[in-house]
Amino acid sequence: MLLVTSIIAAVLTAIFVKLSFAVIGLRRKNKVGLGSGGYDDLERAIRAQGNFAEYVPLGIILIACLELNGAPWWLVAMSGITLIIGRLIHAKGINVPPPDFSKRVLGMKFTFGTLISLAALNLVWALYKLV
After folding, report:
1. Per-residue pLDDT averaged across 82-105, rounded?
2. Which are the contacts of 29, defined by CB distance < 8 A and separation ≥ 6?
3. How many beta carbons lie within 10 A of that of residue 11, not counting itself?
4. For residue 13, what are the CA distances in angstroms to 127, 128, 131?
5. Lower CB density within 10 Å: C or N end of the chain?
6. Would you list the domain boundaries of the chain?
7. 25-58, pLDDT tens digit by residue?
8. What single string gives the DSSP state of each residue in the chain?
9. What CATH code is assigned to 3-130?
10. What is the average pLDDT value for the chain, to the nearest integer?
């Protein structure tokens, strides 16, 4: 069972829906059907949502693999929490005008650190289980 992954995926989905509603709201407000229409706030919202959609699926897959292969629940949870934190910091940094690049960078450090750690953990854990 993927109990920890289910919780992490649910939280990440809620964040994605919130980011998506922000894009929809700005599209309606600015009457833009496609693209950003030159509106900076809409461009930021689109990129926050897009960046989230680009990185989170791989994180969830790696978290699920770790849990399915029997890693301790706390290790799976810790990985999910750091991914959630990274994505929240990044979204905040890109969405608040003017863009706060320090928060964006910190959010990406959390995200990349988590993804790299998850890849390494999965590799080590799988090799450990094989031996």
Report:
1. 88
2. none
3. 16
4. 31, 32, 36
5. C
6. 3-130
7. 999 999 988 888 889 899 999 999 999 999 999 9
8. --HHHHHHHHHHHHHHHHHHHHHHHHHHHHT-SSS-TT-HHHHHHHHHHHHHHHHHHHHHHHHHHHHHTT--HHHHHHHHHHHHHHHHHHHHHHHSSSP-HHHHHHHHHHHHHHHHHHHHHHHHHHHHHH-
9. 1.20.120.550
10. 94
